[in-house]
Design goal:
Layout: E1 10-12, E2 17-26, E3 36-52, E4 58-64, E5 67-71, E6 74-78, E7 83-86, E8 92-95, E9 102-109
Antiparallel strand pairs: 1-2, 2-3, 3-8, 3-9, 4-7, 4-9, 5-6, 5-8
Length: about 110
Amino acid sequence: MHVTRIREAKPYEAKLHHAMVALQLQGGAENETKNFTLGLSHFLPGGGAEHSASATEKIYLVIAGHVTVITDKGETTLGPLDSCHLAPGEGRSIVNRTNEVATMAVIISK
């Protein structure tokens, strides 16, 4: 078992993101997780991610606040404990349109 305490989680740079701080909880360089990574993203008001797609699938789980996820098929706003799945190659952008910090768990397959 590998435990990551939040006080020991390391920040990482997420490309094409702005007004956001990301912490690596599992996977990546932090441990030997083979199939996915788990991050925690804090989006400031107006923060988000530019439209892009990746070759891996993603799951977003909003912990606090609200974020709007925009895909080529439309947009939806996720609140606490709402989640969504993005398929490999599915483009998306993210925006926090509120005046509160939004916190989201991000699971990415490898």
